[in-house]
Amino acid sequence: MVRAVVLPAVNAPLEPAEIDLPEPGPGQVRVRLAAAGVCHSDLSLSNGTLRQPAPAVLGHEGAGTVTAVGEGVTAVSPGDEVVLNWAPPCGSCHFCARLGEPWLCAEAGAAAAVPYARTADGRDLYPGLGTAAFAEETVVSERAVLPLPGGVPLADAALLGCAVLTGYGAVHHSARVREGESVAVFGVGGVGLAVLQSARIAGAGTIVAVDVSPEKEELARRAGATDFLLASDTTAREVRGLTGGLGADVAVECVGRAETIRAAWSSTRRGGRTSVVGIGGRDQQVSFSPLEIFHFARTLSGCVYGNCDPARDLPVLAEHVRAGRLDLDALVTDRIGLDGVPAAFEAMLAGRGGRTLVVF
Known about the structure:
- By secondary structure, the chain is of the alpha/beta class.
- The protein is built from 11 helices and 18 strands.
- The two termini are 16 Å apart.
């Protein structure tokens, strides 16, 4: 039996539990977790914003050590340190094979709908986003693990699996921030902090962090923000004031709320670029007039997993870590045990802190 935190049903409280985890089958890998980040996407899965069969073990940002492999596995061996990949590309669908866009893979989410373990009373248990990292151990597809490059502490490497790949990709692949450009980052949670660091690595000039909590200012400045604003009805105007009256070249929205997306878009200059990372509810609407779309000529785009190819980008991130350009510790405000996950969800709802890391 393996200790885990289980979501018994959508919108139900998380519960600590013992689960029956099978040995890996063909093409599968068993991983002993070293750490797992608590991401806002886990909250979205728990409350039904994102679809997830239940009961389920959530958690998708994780790193650990391979303990066993199933028949046919060649990419990793027992003893290897790995990062979990919650959106493993199939390599053969239209998006993977023809477009070269593995972050949009048509099959990436398939594992989340297939039971991977059982509860103590024998019910099927589903893996959150196919990874189920809120447990001491998990079993995933061979495609869902990435060998960890050397020089990165295993526990900290969990952050590379979602927050950092997403934040780095939003800057370098989606918004394509160029040296000297100004950047406004809306939402200073784990992903927002990764965006700030990535904007600094890209050589951005003015980097404005925006959040509802004044307590986030110190975190934001440590991550690379040159300026900090408390979110308000005048945020877009204030961003323009910090960028020579023009507006930011780039805005990255990490909240997933209609009003924040609108504010991010409005904070950019004519011809500016806004990348939306946050995941919002389907009932929210963002409105623009045809005239302003023409006049401002701004670009608004979605961003899935930072538009990253994790196999390509993970070694790049590891090099930034080794060189001291990327500080993973600066993303983490709390380190907890497995039983602390429900409280971490409450902290996210209240907008407190950066990334919470479950350390096993």
